[in-house]
Amino acid sequence: MAPARIIVLISGTGSTLAALIRAAQAPDSAFEIVGVLADGDAPGLAHARQAAIPTAVVPLRDHPTRADWDRALAAAIAELSGRALPDLVVLAGFMKLVGPAVLSAHPGRIINTHPALLPSFPGAHGVRDALAHGVKITGATVIEVDAGIDTGRILAQRAVEVHEGDTEETLHERIKVVEREMLVDVVSSLAAAPAPQPA
Ligand code: GAR
């Protein structure tokens, strides 16, 4: 079976993307990364360039409305993907909500990784919010993306203990270790499953 074709969206340092790239480069990988998209000049784009994966940047500020940006994002995904739409779109530290144009182009085939145990602590500051709440266990969650803020169906979850004296940075780094592994597992199993047929 040909490897599933994946597009990855990032905003930050891209350590999660780097893990996906390493997994995709393994000889028997069920997926290949055909493009990486960012909403700005994300440092993580360097991982894609190093691996000779095509990249595109679609900043929100370059578009008059959010709906225009969303349509431009959908078009950029289609263009990066080339001959056919991707089998899976993976948000790996993408810090913006995708809108109806992107969602409707890839029904049930967009996933997001989040650094907290959803439905607790959704949004842009999952690690900070969990720490501020004083939880003793947090973790990471991979969800199917819907129109809400981290409200989609939960596909996988792993727990991480909060240590005495943890800062947002130390805790986030420990979460990212399990998060990367979990995301690679989820992408590999979705890639091996047949794509849903249009209704
Ligand atoms: C990851 O922990 C991811 O869950 C988080 O950004 C980090 C990206 O790290 N995403 C969110 O918080 C989305 N709400 P990276 O840039 O090193 O891959």
UniProtKB/TrEMBL annotation:
The record marks D150 as: Raises pKa of active site His. GO terms for molecular function: phosphoribosylglycinamide formyltransferase activity. (6R)-10-formyltetrahydrofolate binds at R66, M95, K96, L97, V98, N112. It comes from the Bacteria. The active site is at H114. It catalyses: N(1)-(5-phospho-beta-D-ribosyl)glycinamide + (6R)-10-formyltetrahydrofolate = N(2)-formyl-N(1)-(5-phospho-beta-D-ribosyl)glycinamide + (6S)-5,6,7,8-tetrahydrofolate + H(+). PROSITE patterns: GART. Keywords: Purine biosynthesis, Transferase. Its EC number is 2.1.2.2. Pfam families: Formyl_trans_N (PF00551). The keyword Disulfide bond does not apply. InterPro entries: Formyl_transf_N, Formyl_transf_N_sf, GART, GART_AS. Catalyzes the transfer of a formyl group from 10-formyltetrahydrofolate to 5-phospho-ribosyl-glycinamide (GAR), producing 5-phospho-ribosyl-N-formylglycinamide (FGAR) and tetrahydrofolate. This is Phosphoribosylglycinamide formyltransferase. The lineage of its organism: Bacteria, Bacillati, Actinomycetota, Actinomycetes, Micrococcales.
